[in-house]
Design the sequence.
Protein backbone atom coordinates (compact mmCIF):
# COMPACT_ATOMS: atom_id res chain seq x y z
CA UNK A 1 0.00 0.00 0.00
CA UNK A 2 2.87 2.35 0.85
CA UNK A 3 4.48 1.62 -2.53
CA UNK A 4 1.15 2.39 -4.22
CA UNK A 5 0.91 5.73 -2.36
CA UNK A 6 4.46 6.63 -3.43
CA UNK A 7 3.55 5.80 -7.02
CA UNK A 8 0.48 8.05 -6.85
CA UNK A 9 2.63 10.91 -5.54
CA UNK A 10 5.19 10.40 -8.32
CA UNK A 11 2.59 10.20 -11.07
CA UNK A 12 0.27 12.74 -9.48
CA UNK A 13 -2.49 12.80 -12.08
CA UNK A 14 -5.59 10.66 -12.03
CA UNK A 15 -8.15 12.55 -14.09
CA UNK A 16 -8.13 14.53 -17.33
CA UNK A 17 -8.85 18.26 -17.31
CA UNK A 18 -10.58 19.81 -20.33
CA UNK A 19 -8.95 22.63 -22.24
CA UNK A 20 -12.00 24.80 -21.43
CA UNK A 21 -11.45 24.30 -17.68
CA UNK A 22 -7.73 24.98 -18.13
CA UNK A 23 -8.46 28.18 -20.04
CA UNK A 24 -10.80 29.48 -17.31
CA UNK A 25 -8.36 28.51 -14.56
CA UNK A 26 -5.46 30.24 -16.31
CA UNK A 27 -7.48 33.41 -16.80
CA UNK A 28 -8.33 33.47 -13.09
CA UNK A 29 -4.68 32.88 -12.14
CA UNK A 30 -3.47 35.72 -14.36
CA UNK A 31 -6.12 38.05 -12.91
CA UNK A 32 -5.23 37.05 -9.35
CA UNK A 33 -8.75 35.71 -8.75
CA UNK A 34 -7.97 31.99 -8.56
CA UNK A 35 -9.15 30.01 -5.51
CA UNK A 36 -9.51 26.32 -4.66
CA UNK A 37 -13.27 26.86 -4.57
CA UNK A 38 -13.12 28.07 -8.19
CA UNK A 39 -11.20 24.91 -9.13
CA UNK A 40 -14.00 22.87 -7.57
CA UNK A 41 -16.63 24.83 -9.50
CA UNK A 42 -14.76 24.15 -12.76
CA UNK A 43 -14.51 20.47 -11.85
CA UNK A 44 -18.27 20.25 -11.21
CA UNK A 45 -18.97 21.66 -14.66
CA UNK A 46 -16.65 19.02 -16.16
CA UNK A 47 -17.95 15.89 -14.48
CA UNK A 48 -20.35 14.24 -12.04
CA UNK A 49 -19.68 12.15 -8.96
CA UNK A 50 -17.92 13.48 -5.88
CA UNK A 51 -14.79 11.32 -6.24
CA UNK A 52 -14.22 12.43 -9.84
CA UNK A 53 -14.92 16.07 -8.97
CA UNK A 54 -12.29 15.98 -6.22
CA UNK A 55 -9.71 14.36 -8.50
CA UNK A 56 -10.27 16.97 -11.21
CA UNK A 57 -10.15 19.74 -8.60
CA UNK A 58 -6.77 18.39 -7.46
CA UNK A 59 -5.39 18.41 -11.03
CA UNK A 60 -6.72 21.92 -11.74
CA UNK A 61 -5.20 23.16 -8.48
CA UNK A 62 -1.82 21.64 -9.33
CA UNK A 63 -1.91 23.32 -12.76
CA UNK A 64 -2.80 26.62 -11.09
CA UNK A 65 -0.41 26.60 -8.14
CA UNK A 66 2.31 24.09 -9.04
CA UNK A 67 3.05 25.17 -12.59
CA UNK A 68 6.82 25.88 -12.88
CA UNK A 69 6.17 28.03 -15.97
CA UNK A 70 3.89 30.43 -14.09
CA UNK A 71 6.50 33.10 -13.20
CA UNK A 72 7.52 33.33 -16.87
CA UNK A 73 3.86 33.36 -17.95
CA UNK A 74 3.05 36.18 -15.53
CA UNK A 75 6.01 38.17 -16.85
CA UNK A 76 4.61 37.70 -20.37
CA UNK A 77 0.93 37.95 -19.50
CA UNK A 78 -0.04 39.78 -22.68
CA UNK A 79 1.61 37.14 -24.89
CA UNK A 80 -0.13 34.40 -22.90
CA UNK A 81 -3.51 36.05 -23.35
CA UNK A 82 -2.90 36.44 -27.09
CA UNK A 83 -1.79 32.81 -27.34
CA UNK A 84 -4.97 31.66 -25.58
CA UNK A 85 -7.01 33.46 -28.24
CA UNK A 86 -5.30 31.53 -31.05
CA UNK A 87 -6.56 27.99 -31.68
CA UNK A 88 -3.12 26.45 -32.37
CA UNK A 89 -1.24 28.36 -29.68
CA UNK A 90 -3.83 27.53 -27.04
CA UNK A 91 -3.26 23.81 -27.60
CA UNK A 92 0.51 24.19 -27.26
CA UNK A 93 0.18 26.27 -24.08
CA UNK A 94 -2.16 23.62 -22.63
CA UNK A 95 0.27 20.79 -23.40
CA UNK A 96 3.27 22.79 -22.16
CA UNK A 97 1.71 23.58 -18.78
CA UNK A 98 0.43 20.01 -18.27
CA UNK A 99 3.87 18.55 -19.08
CA UNK A 100 5.75 21.12 -16.96
CA UNK A 101 3.47 20.52 -13.97
CA UNK A 102 3.24 16.73 -14.23
CA UNK A 103 6.52 14.95 -15.10
CA UNK A 104 4.47 11.82 -15.83
CA UNK A 105 2.67 13.68 -18.64
CA UNK A 106 6.03 14.76 -20.03
CA UNK A 107 7.31 11.16 -19.96
CA UNK A 108 4.13 9.83 -21.58
CA UNK A 109 4.13 12.42 -24.38
CA UNK A 110 7.86 11.93 -25.03
CA UNK A 111 7.36 8.18 -25.20
CA UNK A 112 4.52 8.59 -27.69
CA UNK A 113 6.69 10.96 -29.75
CA UNK A 114 9.57 8.49 -29.75
CA UNK A 115 7.50 5.68 -31.27
CA UNK A 116 5.39 7.87 -33.56
CA UNK A 117 8.66 9.05 -35.10
CA UNK A 118 9.30 5.56 -36.46
CA UNK A 119 5.79 4.17 -36.96
CA UNK A 120 2.45 5.60 -38.05
CA UNK A 121 0.42 4.10 -35.25
CA UNK A 122 1.03 3.18 -31.61
CA UNK A 123 -1.06 1.43 -28.98
CA UNK A 124 -1.85 2.25 -25.38
CA UNK A 125 -0.35 -1.13 -24.48
CA UNK A 126 3.02 -0.22 -26.02
CA UNK A 127 3.24 3.09 -24.16
CA UNK A 128 2.03 1.57 -20.90
CA UNK A 129 4.67 -1.15 -21.19
CA UNK A 130 7.47 1.35 -21.80
CA UNK A 131 6.34 3.64 -18.97
CA UNK A 132 6.14 0.69 -16.58
CA UNK A 133 9.92 0.37 -17.03
CA UNK A 134 10.16 3.82 -15.39
CA UNK A 135 7.28 3.79 -12.92
CA UNK A 136 6.66 0.12 -12.27
CA UNK A 137 3.68 -1.90 -13.40
CA UNK A 138 0.83 -0.84 -11.15
CA UNK A 139 -2.82 0.11 -11.57
CA UNK A 140 -2.07 3.82 -11.02
CA UNK A 141 0.00 3.89 -14.22
CA UNK A 142 -2.98 2.87 -16.35
CA UNK A 143 -5.27 5.38 -14.61
CA UNK A 144 -2.75 8.16 -15.16
CA UNK A 145 -2.21 7.25 -18.81
CA UNK A 146 -5.98 7.34 -19.31
CA UNK A 147 -5.92 10.83 -17.78
CA UNK A 148 -3.16 12.36 -19.92
CA UNK A 149 -3.98 10.85 -23.33
CA UNK A 150 -7.37 12.65 -23.65
CA UNK A 151 -5.56 15.92 -22.92
CA UNK A 152 -2.97 15.19 -25.63
CA UNK A 153 -5.87 14.42 -27.98
CA UNK A 154 -7.66 17.68 -27.16
CA UNK A 155 -4.39 19.52 -27.74
CA UNK A 156 -4.25 17.95 -31.20
CA UNK A 157 -0.92 16.24 -30.51
CA UNK A 158 -2.31 12.75 -31.11
CA UNK A 159 -5.37 11.36 -32.84
CA UNK A 160 -7.24 8.21 -31.87
CA UNK A 161 -7.96 6.02 -34.88
CA UNK A 162 -9.82 3.44 -32.81
CA UNK A 163 -9.87 2.47 -29.14
CA UNK A 164 -6.29 2.05 -27.94
CA UNK A 165 -4.65 3.09 -31.25
CA UNK A 166 -3.09 6.52 -31.79
CA UNK A 167 -1.38 8.42 -34.60
CA UNK A 168 0.41 11.76 -34.84
CA UNK A 169 -1.90 14.77 -34.67
CA UNK A 170 -1.67 18.02 -36.56
CA UNK A 171 -0.32 21.04 -34.68
CA UNK A 172 0.72 23.83 -37.01
CA UNK A 173 1.06 27.61 -37.36
CA UNK A 174 2.18 28.17 -33.77
CA UNK A 175 3.60 31.49 -32.64
CA UNK A 176 7.19 31.81 -31.50
CA UNK A 177 5.92 32.49 -27.99
CA UNK A 178 3.92 29.22 -27.83
CA UNK A 179 6.97 27.28 -29.04
CA UNK A 180 9.17 29.09 -26.49
CA UNK A 181 6.78 28.07 -23.69
CA UNK A 182 6.79 24.47 -24.92
CA UNK A 183 10.59 24.51 -24.94
CA UNK A 184 10.55 25.73 -21.36
CA UNK A 185 8.38 22.75 -20.44
CA UNK A 186 11.14 20.55 -21.85
CA UNK A 187 13.78 22.40 -19.80
CA UNK A 188 11.73 21.96 -16.61
CA UNK A 189 11.96 18.20 -17.15
CA UNK A 190 15.60 18.22 -18.33
CA UNK A 191 17.71 20.31 -15.99
CA UNK A 192 20.97 19.40 -17.77
CA UNK A 193 19.90 21.45 -20.81
CA UNK A 194 19.73 25.23 -21.23
CA UNK A 195 17.99 27.44 -23.79
CA UNK A 196 21.26 27.38 -25.77
CA UNK A 197 21.85 23.61 -25.63
CA UNK A 198 18.21 22.58 -26.10
CA UNK A 199 17.85 19.28 -27.98
CA UNK A 200 15.07 19.85 -30.50
CA UNK A 201 15.55 16.32 -31.86
CA UNK A 202 14.14 14.99 -28.57
CA UNK A 203 10.89 12.99 -29.07
CA UNK A 204 9.03 15.61 -26.98
CA UNK A 205 9.29 17.93 -30.02
CA UNK A 206 7.95 15.36 -32.48
CA UNK A 207 4.51 17.00 -32.34
CA UNK A 208 5.71 20.45 -33.40
CA UNK A 209 7.79 19.44 -36.42
Sequence:
Amino acid sequence: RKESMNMEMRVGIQQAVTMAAFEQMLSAVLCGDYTLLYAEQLARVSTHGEARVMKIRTVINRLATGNPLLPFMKEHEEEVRMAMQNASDKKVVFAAVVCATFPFAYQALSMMGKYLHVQDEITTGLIKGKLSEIYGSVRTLEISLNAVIPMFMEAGFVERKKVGFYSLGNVSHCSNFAIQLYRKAFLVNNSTYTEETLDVTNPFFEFLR
